[in-house]
Design brief:
heterodimer, A: alpha/beta, seven-stranded parallel beta sheet, three-stranded mixed beta sheet, 40% helix, globular, B: alpha/beta, Rossmann fold, UDP-galactose 4-epimerase, domain 1, 2 domains, two-stranded parallel ribbon, 14 strands, binds nicotinamide-adenine-dinucleotide
Chain lengths: 330, 268
């Protein structure tokens, strides 16, 4: 029975959904959330659970060994989701990406090794495989990252591999495709476009908008993590994917439809970013074989998600006014 | 004689005002201020002194330092500025309180301040009296004995490496920085304002946000809620402050101040 969970990055987007899920799935367990509270984190993301005595928020940097080790000492399950997560930021200054995503992961692993943590789940991404123009990658595909963010996530996985081979640590790796849901920081496409449209502002798409992404609900992802805690084979990586694939143009159109807008009037196109992967795609038979199913779809959920951003627009007001957000400054 | 006298010079708010005015202001202790010659020549007397008894018992006019000082200011021909509190507003009016809302005092402290406001109005001519009803001011509050929200957070972070809340972190209150408070007071005095004015941001922040910013600046520490009660939420309508001074608080400055206080604490 899991008694004490340490979750890194729990005040961010995915982390907060994972936190909620595990809080309810393991009603006896203590939950310690380690988070640096970067711009992407918000205590409000934890509104439904933070006031419970079973939950503690440890604010600090995963790169700080003494800090991390203190909490990991008590854990029998560590879920590592903290990361610098926004690809676009990594084109500007990628050093924090390597620090947090590679060195930070190394620190977590060292602490887990020292304290003999019985179960470790590492949250990685489908972007480690790089661009997939046709077909899809299974877990045996080689890593071929194409930007500083995905390179740092691949770097983290290399460290994990080393620890797995050398110390046989009880690690399970998950590589997920794009996740969507409420509470995502409005630098990512769905919250950003929803909030811009809510404010009556036009959307900007990099390139011609034909880039494709798969979208998986954050709750489906959290359920997959629980399954892997309980049934995942140590040392294995698991893809977690969705059947729902859309181009950026289709996502923009889907969002415009929520506002009754014609995309022709609301979408503008600008020069593409340095390297914008056209498509990522995963085979996820391996986790399906353990019994996981995608239970939600973006088409069914999009109106609730958009409504949530509309209802909570004041929360992002400060960012909504910034020139970076409005696309006025790079 | 500087044009502005700030009484209760060692207090947190007084320190902020003295800093904002620089050489144009002089600080006095409350004892010094009662000496007849001390106020002579001053154009403005601002009282930043707080009698601790105000927090726990209703004071009589004879015990009312603000009233005595206001009388002295009138004798010296100066304008008088009283620092009152948003706690003069009734509990029901706390969400967006305006200056013309009823001022009955929501607790002993608020009642004392409401009484003082009324008493002072009797003795100071209308055009020479400014009463500022102040929101929650945060600043460098790591001062022994101080029991404000910020001081308690700083204290427990320094002593135990954690912040624990006996209220919900989602309780929203109107916070301003000591700097914005002082700039507002300066702006009000410079505009020759008289009457009642709320001094706040008009934009409530979650108390938990301040704790997070403090922890972020400090670098590490844990956060826990021991009792998630929701109480004493408030924000002030600050349209009058804005129209009199042109000043408007930026909530980000409160977060940044917390980060800075956290950094200062970490570096000893
Ligand atoms: N969002 C997606 O679509 C997606 C898809 C696949 C994988 N992932 C992975 O999922 C994880 C979570 O992503 P997200 O979208 O929720 O990101 P996010 O940016 O919303 O959250 C990341 C969290 O990590 C915290 N953090 C960052 N640096 C830290 C540090 N040095 N120490 C402690 N905490 C730190 C942040 O404060 C934030 O709360 C990441 O590992 C990301 O690579 C995300």
């Amino acid at each position: 029975m899991v008694k004490h969970i340490v979750l890194t990055g729990g005040a961010g987007f995915i982390g907060s959904h994972v936190a909620e899920h595990f809080f309810h799935a393991y009603p006896q367990a203590q939950l310690t959330i380690i988070d640096k509270m970067t711009y992407a984190a918000d205590i409000d993301n934890l509104r439904s659970i933070i006031q419970d005595p079973r939950v503690r928020l440890a604010v600090g940097d995963i790169c700080d060994y003494a800090f991390v080790s203190r909490y990991i000492a008590e854990a029998d399950l560590v879920i590592h989701a903290a990361a610098e997560s926004h690809v676009d930021n990594s084109f500007g200054n990628s050093l924090p990406f390597t620090m947090t995503n590679v060195y930070g992961t190394h620190v977590i692993l060292e602490a887990c090794r020292l304290h003999k943590t019985p179960r470790i789940i590492h949250v990685s991404t489908d972007e480690v495989y790089g661009e997939v123009l046709e077909g899809a990658n299974d877990e045996s595909a080689p890593m071929n990252p194409t930007n500083p963010y995905s390179a740092s996530k691949a770097g983290a996985e290399m460290i994990l591999r080393g620890f797995l081979n050398c110390y046989r640590m009880p690690i399970v790796i998950v590589r997920a495709n794009n996740i969507f849901g409420i509470r995502q920081f409005p630098e990512k496409i769905i919250p950003k476009f929803s909030l811009l449209l809510h404010k009556g502002m036009k959307l900007t798409i990099h390139g011609d908008g034909s880039n494709r992404r798969h979208f998986l609900a954050a709750q489906d992802f959290a359920e997959a993590l629980q399954l892997l805690v309980e049934k995942g084979v140590i040392g294995e990586a698991y893809n977690i994917g969705s059947e729902d694939e859309f181009t950026n143009n289709e996502v923009a159109a889907m969002l415009c439809a929520q506002f009754g807008y014609d995309p022709k009037d609301w979408v503008t196109y600008v020069e593409d970013r340095p390297f914008n992967d056209r498509r990522y795609a995963l085979h996820f038979e391996k986790i399906k074989a353990l019994g996981w199913r995608q239970n939600r779809s973006i088409t069914n959920m999009i109106s609730d998600v958009v409504q949530w951003y509309r209802d909570h627009a004041d929360r992002y007001e400060y960012y909504l006014r910034s020139p970076e957000f409005l696309g006025l400054k790079k | 004689m500087p044009e502005v006298l700030v009484v209760g010079e060692s207090g947190f708010l007084s320190q902020a005002m003295l800093k904002a005015w620089g050489s144009r202001a002089q600080g006095l202790s409350w004892r010094e201020a009662l000496h007849p010659s001390q106020l002579a020549g001053a154009q403005w007397v601002l009282n930043g002194a707080l009698d601790p008894r105000q927090m726990s018992e209703l004071l009589s006019p004879e015990e009312d330092f603000d009233l005595q000082l206001a009388q002295k200011a009138v004798e010296a021909g100066a304008h008088y500025v009283m620092l009152s509190t948003r706690k003069v507003y009734d509990r029901a009016a706390q969400w967006g309180a305006r200056e013309d809302d009823l001022a009955v005092g929501q607790d002993v402290y608020g009642q004392n301040k409401a009484q003082t406001e009324a008493r002072i109005r009797e003795v100071v001519p209308e055009d020479r009296l400014l009463i500022a009803r102040v929101a929650n001011v945060v600043g460098p509050e790591r001062v022994p004995g101080r029991r404000s929200f910020m001081a308690m957070m700083l204290g427990s972070l320094a002593d135990r490496g954690e912040i624990s809340f006996n209220m919900s972190p989602f309780v929203r209150r109107d916070f301003i920085t000591d700097r914005f408070f002082a700039d507002s007071m300066k702006g009000l005095v410079e505009s020759g304002a008289s009457g009642l004015v709320n001094v706040g941001s008009g934009q409530p922040l979650m108390t938990g946000e301040l704790a997070m910013a403090l922890l972020e600046g400090f670098g590490q520490g844990s956060f826990r809620v021991t009792d998630p009660r929701v109480f004493d939420e408030f924000w002030l309508d600050v349209s009058r402050l804005k129209s009199w001074t042109g000043l408007e608080a930026d909530p980000e400055s409160v977060r940044e101040l917390c980060r800075e206080e956290g950094r200062k604490l970490a570096s000893g």
